Amino acid sequence: EVQLQASGGGLVQTGGSLRLSCAYSGFTDDNFAIGWFRQAPGKDREGVSCISSDGDTSSSDSVKGRFTISTDNAKNTVYLQMNNLLPEDTGIYYCKGKLFTGREYWGRGTQVTVSS
């Protein structure tokens, strides 16, 4: 059974940093991608950053230059380093695993709150 668990959220001031972790398990195939998504109050969930199993990454324009996604394959963990946080980064952050078949698995989110 595939499982993902996001952690590392918290309350920070504008300009601060947080590192989120997404611990995953249960993938029986190496061909998958892990993505970070967020949902602000009253808004739709949006993609933030993702990384494929061969290391290719992509990020939304709103976080480029501030957020960095990385992976530690030995620990089955994907990280999202978030620097220069802004109030508009506030939301619940989720990680999602996606197999090459298209099947998706969501983990429980972690709250990030950026105060102005």
Structure notes:
Strands 2, 4, 5, 6, 9, 10 and 11 form a seven-stranded mixed beta sheet that branches. The model has no long low-confidence stretch (mean pLDDT 95). Strand 7 and strand 8 form a beta hairpin. 0% of the residues lie in helices and 56% in strands. The radius of gyration is 14 Å and the shape is globular. The chain has 116 residues and is mainly beta. The termini are far apart.
Summarize the structure.
The chain is mainly beta.
Strand content: over 45%
Helix count, per DSSP? 0
Topology pattern, helix = H, strand = E:
EEEEEEEEEEE
pLDDT under 50 segments (min length 5)? none
Q: Which class best fits the helix and strand makeup?
A: mainly beta
Entry keywords:
single chain; mainly beta; four-stranded antiparallel β-sheet; 11 strands
Write the layout of secondary structure elements.
Elements: E1 3-7, E2 10-13, E3 18-25, E4 32-39, E5 46-52, E6 57-59, E7 67-72, E8 77-82, E9 91-99, E10 104-106, E11 110-115
Parallel strand pairs: 2-11
Antiparallel strand pairs: 1-3, 3-8, 4-5, 4-9, 5-6, 7-8, 9-10, 9-11
